[in-house]
Design goal:
With 234 residues, the chain is α/β, with parallel strands linked by helices. It has one domain (2-233): Protein-Tyrosine Phosphatase, Chain A (Alpha-Beta Complex). 47% of the residues lie in helices and 8% in strands. The protein is built from 10 helices and 6 strands, in the order E-E-E-H-E-E-H-H-E-H-H-H-H-H-H-H. The protein has helices spanning 42-50, 99-109, 111-123, 140-151, 156-169, 172-177, 181-191, 195-209, 212-219, 223-233; strands spanning 2-3, 13-14, 31-34, 55-58, 77-79, 130-133. A 6-stranded mixed sheet has the order 1-2-3-6-4-5, covered by helices on one side. Helix 5 packs across helix 8. The protein starts with a strand and ends with a helix.
Length: 234
């Protein structure tokens, strides 16, 4: 994992250099995760363009689109919302009190959207990096990245450590400390990126679907598309 400096964004890093259980490491310059490029200043936009992405994948929903994306209208920009608005109506918030509960429900409900996002990554130009983001780059992006890293055999403690970095990069612990006790209690569960949260999600993929490859197949990816995803990273 290598941090990148895109002025205006706080949570930008690429997925190269992770060890895998099969030997070797993930390839550099293939997938970049970040918080929303809407926050980039002119230098940040220049850095994003200089990265030469073959795909910039925006996982945000319609209601989040408050301003024009800096690459809106560019051929490399695609927005595929992670959240399925129809299936979201089935969600009962009281049944998902913890972020781990929300993540498990998200992996179950949003498979129709998840397959579109992963298919877009699989079919993106192999010689150019893919940039993936949501708003903060920690939850929806975190789940997608965890699936990719698990697919290529990155040890789960490494996946969890990468996931946990987001709260540091975004300054969330410091922001929580500035809140009143009641506000802190209300927001801590949603803001933090605790390792056990993403580990629980991957355990859910194991127990309910038989592992990440079986989960991706359940979502609708073909064996060839799953192989393309893996080949991007290793």
């Amino acid at each position: 994992m290598t941090d990148l400096e895109w002025s205006g964004c706080l949570n930008t890093r690429e997925l190269g250099g992770f060890p895998t259980r099969y030997g070797g490491v993930t390839r550099a310059g293939t997938v970049i995760r970040t918080d929303s490029p809407d926050q980039l200043d002119a230098d940040g936009v220049a850095a994003l363009r200089a990265a030469g992405p073959g795909l910039v994948l925006d996982l945000r929903s319609d209601w989040e689109m408050k301003q024009t994306h800096p690459l809106d209208g560019d051929a490399v920009y695609r927005r595929i919302p992670w959240i399925d608005p129809i299936r979201e109506q089935e969600r009962v918030p009281d049944d998902e009190p913890l972020m781990a509960d929300i993540y498990r429900g998200s992996l179950d409900r949003n498979q129709g959207q998840i397959v579109q996002a992963l298919r877009a990554i699989a079919s993106a130009p192999a010689e150019a990096p893919v940039v993936v983001h949501c708003k903060s780059g920690k939850d929806r992006t975190g789940l997608l990245v965890a699936l990719l890293l698990d697919l290529v055999g990155v040890p789960r403690e490494e996946i969890a450590a990468d996931y946990a970095i987001s709260e540091q990069r975004l300054g969330l612990v410091a922001r929580l400390a500035e809140l009143s006790a009641d506000e802190r209690a209300a927001n801590e569960m949603l803001w933090r990126t605790l390792p056990e949260t993403i580990l629980d999600s991957l355990e859910h993929v194991d127990t309910q679907y038989g592992g990440v490859r079986a989960y991706l197949a359940t979502c609708g990816l073909t064996a060839a598309e799953i192989s393309q995803l893996a080949a991007r990273l290793v």
